[in-house]
Each structure stands twice: as C-alpha cells, then as structure tokens.
Automatic annotation (TrEMBL):
InterPro entries: DNA-bd_dom_put_sf (IPR009061), MerR-type_HTH_dom (IPR000551), MerR_fam (IPR047057). The keyword rRNA processing does not apply. This is MerR family transcriptional regulator. The keyword Calcium does not apply. GO terms for molecular function: DNA binding; DNA-binding transcription factor activity. Keywords: DNA-binding, Transcription, Transcription regulation. Residues 1-68 form the HTH merR-type domain. The lineage of its organism: Bacteria, Bacillati, Actinomycetota, Actinomycetes, Micromonosporales. It comes from Actinoplanes utahensis.
Length: 120
C-alpha cells in the first residue's frame, strides 16, 4: 500500500509516517518510481507506535517494541528490551503519581485552612 493508504488506515498523516521512517521505526520499500510501499505488517507497527506515544513513551523508547514485533512476536512488549523500557516507564509514572499525591494533599490542607478562617 502507498503512504496515503497506510496513513488513512492507521488514522494518522503521511507526514507522521515520514517522521516515523526518519527515526527508523517503520521501513517502507521503494518501487521503481521511488514511491514508498508498505505491507500490512507496517500497519500493525504504526498502531503500536501510536499507542506507545499516547502512553508517553519517547521515540527512542519505542524502538525495542518495534524490533520485538519485527522479530515475529505477537506483541511488542514481550521481549526483554521492551520489558526493561516498561519497568523504567512504570518507575517514572510511579514518581509522577507520588508527586501528584503530595500536591493533592497540600491543596486539600490549604482549602481546610481557608474553611477554618471563614468559620466564625
């Protein structure tokens, strides 16, 4: 399929697909006139990329997941390199949640303080 068809089927734009290609995430073949050609496997890879980006992963973090899919695995997260990235990302998310919980408590405390001052 051509880049426009892949973009439509994946719910993205040709520009985004060229960006993925620039970063080595997708690998089109080229036909005689230089047009990019994609097989159905690339659609699966693009879906994986989009999901991981939506979950906050960076482009470099995504590479092990793509490699895992290209190695014939059923999912991009089942390989050791992907698991390492998942562990690191989970630790980051846990840290964010801890900081957000602290902010949440501080805001609650400040609101309690305001209520106490407003009560005669």
């Amino acid at each position: 399929m051509l880049i426009g068809e892949l973009a439509e089927r994946a719910g993205t734009s040709p520009r985004t697909l060229r960006y993925y290609e620039e970063h080595g995430l997708i690998h089109p073949s080229r036909d005689a006139n230089g047009y990019r050609q994609y097989d159905d496997g690339e659609l699966r890879v693009v879906h994986e990329i989009r999901t991981l980006l939506a979950d906050g992963f960076g482009v470099d973090d995504i590479k092990p997941f793509v490699a895992c899919l290209r190695a014939g695995n059923s999912a991009g997260h089942v390989c050791p390199d992907s698991a390492m990235v998942l562990r690191r990302r989970l630790a980051e998310v846990d840290g964010y949640l801890a900081r957000l919980t602290e902010v949440q408590q501080r805001l609650r405390d400040q609101l309690k303080e305001i209520k106490c001052q407003m009560t005669p």
